[in-house]
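Following the same procedure, backbone shapes were mapped to integers, yielding the entry below.
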Amino acid sequence: MLVRFISMLRRVLSTEGILCLLVLVASSGLVAQELAPGNPGLEAWLDRSPFSGKTASRVSAPWGDLDINFLPLESSEVIFPDRSERLRKPSWFFPSKSLAQVTNFIESLNLTGPARKELLETANWQQVSNVWKINPTIDTIRQLDASSRDALYTVLAKHPANYNQRFPIRFTPTNFVERFAASKLTSAQLSEVRALCYTNLGYIAFCDFETLQSRFDGPAFDQLIKVLYSLPSVQVNLKISPKTDIDGLVKYWGKNQKEARIRPLLESVARNPLGGEIDILSLLPPFPRLHLYTFPEAGEETIEGKIDCFISGLNFFNAQPDVRFLDAEVRRQTIDNDYYAIETNPTFGDLFMLLNDKGVAVHMAVYIADNIVFTKNGLSARQPWCFMRIPDMMTYYPSTTPLKLVFLRHK
């Protein structure tokens, strides 16, 4: 059932999307590729990548043969930080001020039976602050099909009072499978989750928390929250055999004058007749090696509490975080003076940056290999440093306006 559901969604969700959290003024002279909502630009770039797995053997890629494993990360602190907002009694606030417009919109949905009758019963509507409010029953929410839910929730997302529809949990099709395959939910419970999913900005989306809380027992609902709020990170091993091109691996992973440090380890594994694997954590520079898969200390009084995606990216090759990057102007000057834009074939240590339609950077990550990046998705202490696939990272950055992708390389 789950596989068939995802196969259907793969046909519907042909693209990946983007969002933005933070801002940094970027150089006006950068070459950038536009990414429209739904992000066909990013998917096209991933498809064109010569080492995407579609045009070349993964073993022949410059980073070597990688074994990539799904690694959901959970905070040891508050797992469900927006619990009160998510579990409010269902209320829908329609942005239209006209009763006729709301009525016509509901009539346009593919609704039948009790759900259609309930939602069109205008005697039960309330006018609040010049907008119309409907309090749907759990049964009506469950009766919505995917297309009606998609159309309805897209409209509801435009009003600030509809928290769940404004901030759904988004998945790529692959990540949806990975997350729920590792859960302890029963097949019947998974069917309930699937029935409430819809599409949002090119992703699988879910936001009906209060509906499933009323349907699941306590342990099952807690398990659902763990699945939804875990971060879809990956752990990466490098496979090495006696035939591996060690010089090529040293050239790729030894950037920034680190060749001598990593060569002995790679050669030692290659001398084993059976070969072996090493966690690429051991190949990273000091800053990412110390921070990978960790959550920052909370509190603005600590340096870690002030390190966002931009400071993390600019400190990637540093032994200690350069505190000058706490100054936005220093960050801007550093990018302008020390980096140049590349159009294709990013390599280990290149910066991955998203710009909005005004040329302002909204996120930065560091390219690792095989479309995996080192990222910290926001300043929050609930966001760890981790490895993520680029499409999975983008689920944290949806946007309804075109964004631009820029790869930067140190001069």
Q: What stands out?
A: Confidence is low (pLDDT under 50) at residues 1-32, 34-43, 45-57. The chain has two domains: 2-72+233-410, 75-227.
